[in-house]
Amino acid sequence: MIRRTGHVVDIQRPAATLDKIGAGSVEWQTIFEGVRAWVQPVAAQIQVTGRQRQMIVTHWVYFCEDPMLETGDRILFDGRELAVTGVEDIAGVGRLWKAECMEQK
Q1: Which of 4, 48, 83, 99 is the most exposed place for a label (fewest CB within 10 A)?
Q2: What is the DSSP code (8-state) at residue 67?
Q3: Closest CA to 30 of 75, 68, 83, 61
Q4: Which distant-in-sequence residues (6+ apart) come within 8 Å of 60 by Cβ?
Q5: What are the residue boundaries of the structural domains of the chain, listed by start?
């Protein structure tokens, strides 16, 4: 389903860098381009309770191959920046992954 239809996204990962005077900053590096996915906006923002935190999920992004995402990565889609707050292998069978994301303003 996702392989032939759906959406195309880019995945970025933050990289810590130092400027000329030694101050730290973060630059985003694109690690994957043109990845097939299915981006689903959450109809009403859903409050998801984590182990020791609360977060708002605005989008779920589904992949049919392991996207190798990490919390803190971001997904670029249709001019939007979606911060990855969690990722799971649905049912643990290696066939469908879901990233929980929060749209950045």
Answers
A1: 4
A2: -
A3: 75
A4: 39, 40, 42, 98, 99, 100, 101
A5: 7-104
Contacts of 67 (CB under 8 A, 6+ apart): 11, 32, 35, 37, 87, 97, 99
Alpha helices in 3-95 (DSSP H): none
Q: What predicted TM-score, i.e. pTM, was given to this entire model?
A: 0.82
2.40.10.370, 1.10.530.10, 3.30.70.2200, 3.50.30.30: CATH of 7-104: 2.40.10.370
Q: How many CB atoms lie within 10 A of CB 69?
A: 21
